[in-house]
Amino acid sequence: MALLGYATVHPAFSLKKQVALLEAAGCHRIFIDESVNDYTGLHKLIEVYEEGQDVFLTLLHRKNNMIQEQFLAMLELKKYGSDPGRPKKTISIDEIAIQLSQRNTPITEICEMLNISQRTFFRIKKDNMLA
C-alpha cells in the first residue's frame, strides 16, 4: 500500500520543504492545500485513503490539529466497523535525516527542513554508522 502525505500552507515552513520531507519519508502520493481555507487536498486524501494506510502530516500546529480531527471524523464515516489494528511504525527525524543525506541533500538544507542543528545532524549520522 502506498504511503500518503499531506502538506498545507504555513508561514514558517514552505510547501516545497514539506513535500521534500514527505518524499524522504517515502510518501508516494502527496496531497496539498495551497491556501488557508482550501481543503481540496485533504478531501482528495480521504477519498483515496484505504484502511490501514499510513498518512504523514508535516506540521503539528493548530490547523493540523483541526485537520487531524476532521480526517479522523471523516474516516469514521467511511469505516464499516472493522478494527484498525495495531498502529503502524512512524518514521523518525533520524531516519528522514539519513535518507535525505543518502540523496546528497546539502546538510544545511536538511538541518533547516528538520529544524535541527548541524551538531545534531552529525550525531544522528554517527549513531547510524555505528548501528
Can you describe this structure?
This protein folds into two domains: 3-78, Resolvase, N-terminal catalytic domain (Rossmann fold, 3-Layer(aba) Sandwich), CATH 3.40.50.1390; 93-130. 51% of the residues lie in helices and 12% in strands. It has six helices and three strands.
Spell out the helices and strands N to C: EHEHEHHHH
Query: Would you identify the regions where 5 or more consecutive residues have pLDDT less than 50?
Result: none
Return the CATH class of the largest domain.
Alpha Beta
Distance between the termini: 28 Å
- The class by helix and strand makeup works out as alpha/beta
CATH superfamily of the largest domain: Resolvase, N-terminal catalytic domain
Return Rg in Å: 16 Å
Strand content of the residues, in percent? 5-15%
The coarse overall form would be globular
Q: What's the structural domain tally? A: 2
Largest sheet: 3 strands, parallel
**Strand order of the main beta sheet, please?**
2-1-3
Question: Which CATH architecture of the largest domain?
Answer: 3-Layer(aba) Sandwich
The number of strands is 3
Compose a concise summary of this entry.
With 131 residues, the protein is α/β, with parallel strands linked by helices. The chain has helices spanning 15-24, 40-48, 62-78, 93-102, 107-114, 118-130; strands at residues 3-8, 27-33, 55-57. Strands 2-1-3 form a three-stranded parallel beta sheet.
Key terms:
131 residues, alpha/beta
Topology record:
Elements: E1 3-8, H1 15-24, E2 27-33, H2 40-48, E3 55-57, H3 62-78, H4 93-102, H5 107-114, H6 118-130
Parallel strand pairs: 1-2, 1-3
Helix pairs in contact: 4-5
